[in-house]
Specification:
The protein is of the alpha/beta class and about 425 residues long. It has two domains: about 240 residues, Putative sugar-binding, N-terminal domain (Rossmann fold), CATH 3.40.50; about 180 residues, 3-Layer(aba) Sandwich (Molybdenum Cofactor Biosythetic Enzyme, Chain A), CATH 3.40.980.20. It is built from 14 helices and 18 strands. It has a 15-stranded mixed sheet, with helices on both faces. Strands 6-7-8 form a three-stranded antiparallel sheet, with no helix packed on it. Helix 10 packs across helix 12 and helix 12 packs across helix 13. It binds adenosine-5'-diphosphate (ADP).
Length: about 425
Amino acid sequence: MLGCIADDFTGATDLANNLVRAGMRVVQAIGVPAAPLDAPVDAVVVALKSRTIAPKAAVAQSLAALAWLQGQGAQQIYFKVCSTFDSTAQGNIGPVTEALMDALGADFSIATPAFPDNQRSVFKGHLFVGDQLLSDSGMRDHPLTPMTDANLVRVMQAQCQRRVGLIDHAVVAQGDAAIRARMARLRADGIGIAIVDAISNADLMRLGPALKDLPVLCAGSGVAIGLPQNFGITPSSQAAALPAPRGLRAVLAGSCSLATQGQVRHAIHSGMPALALDPLRIAGGADVVGQALSWAAEHLGQGAVLVYSTADAEGLKRVQEQLGVDAAGAMVERTLAQVAQGLVRQGVGQLIVAGGETSGACVQGLQIAQMRIGPQIDPGVPWCHAALPGHREGLHIALKSGNFGSEDFFTKAFALL
Ligand code: ADP
C-alpha cells in the first residue's frame, strides 16, 4: 500500500515503528532491494543514506527506490525526511520531492516534519523544536546541516523549482474538507508544494484523510500515524507480530552517549556479565575479537551478555587523541561488527545493538538486507526480525540510536520479547 523512501537509517526505523503502531505490517529494507518482497506486508520503508550527499546522487537513489516500490505495487509514496528538516542549502529535501513528483506525474504535494510526540511542531509554517524555533535550537550549529531559518516555506522554496505555499493551522483544525479545499485553492494559484502546520496528534489524524489522493508526500515520521486509516487499517497488535524468539541473548554497545553510558552501568549493576573492549588494545593488534568470543562462550548459556566499547567523555578523548576520531570510530565499529558475526555463529538469536553508526556496521557485517518491524521497546526503537544468509531461523535484532531508551533498556528489551 505505502512505499516509503527514508533519507537515513534510524529515520527509516522511526517511520516504520510509527506505521506498525498504526496497524501496518512493515518491512524495512537496507538500501534498494535487489529482489522482490518475499512476505506480504502493507508498507515497505527503503532506508537510504541520502541526507547530505550531492543532490544529483540523492535524486538518483530515490528514483531507484521509487522504481522498486512501484514494482511491488505501492499505491502512495512517502518521502521520509528528518523531523528537524535537516538539509543543506542545495537540498536534498526539495530536489528529491520534486523528482518524485515528476516521476509520478504529481502536480501537488505537501511537506511537513511535524511530530508532536517528539516535540516537533509546525505553526504558521515555522518549525519548533520543543519550545524553541528551529533556528534557536541546537540545530543551528549542526556540523553538516546547520538550520538557521525556522520558516519552512522559505527553506523549502530555496530548494524547489515549484512554488511553495502553506496550509496553516486554522485550516488544519477544521479537518479533511477544509484541508482539501485549501489544497485545491493553492493548486489553482500555481502552488506545487505546501508546508502543513500541525501541533498535535489530532492535527495529524485530521490531515491523514486529506492526503489520500496525493501520489507522493514529504514528511517526518509523524504524518504516518494518520495514513493507515486511508487504507482501511486500524491499530492492531497483529501488525507487530514477529516469529517466536529463539537462541541466546547478547548486547553490543558502541555508543558513547550519556543514555548508553547509563544503560551499560545499569545492566552491569543488575548482574549482566559484561566485557569492555579497549580500543588501544585493538589498535595494538591484540586478538580482541577472539578473546571476546571466548569470554562470551563461557557466559552465554546463563543469560544475556554485554560487550561494550562505551566510554565516558574522558576515556573517549584519550583514545581519540591517540588514534584520531575517525580511525578510532571505524576500528571500533569493525570490531563490534566482527563480534556480532561471531556471536550469531555461537547461537545468539536475540541481539541488541546500541549506537547509530555501530548499528549500521553490525547490520552490514551480518549481511542483513531486510527487517520485519515488531513491537516498540521504547519510542523510536522496535524489535525487528531479519533473515540471515545461511541461517534458517533468522535473528531478532533491536537497533538503538545512542541517546534513545530508558536506563533499564537492555534488560527490559529481552523481557518484552
Ligand atoms: P551514537 O548513536 O551514540 O552516535 P554511534 O555508534 O553512531 O553512536 O557512534 C559512536 C562512535 O564512537 C562509533 O564510530 C564507535 O565506533 C565510536 N566509539 C565507540 N566506543 C569508542 C571508544 N571507546 N573510543 C573511541 N571511539 C569509540
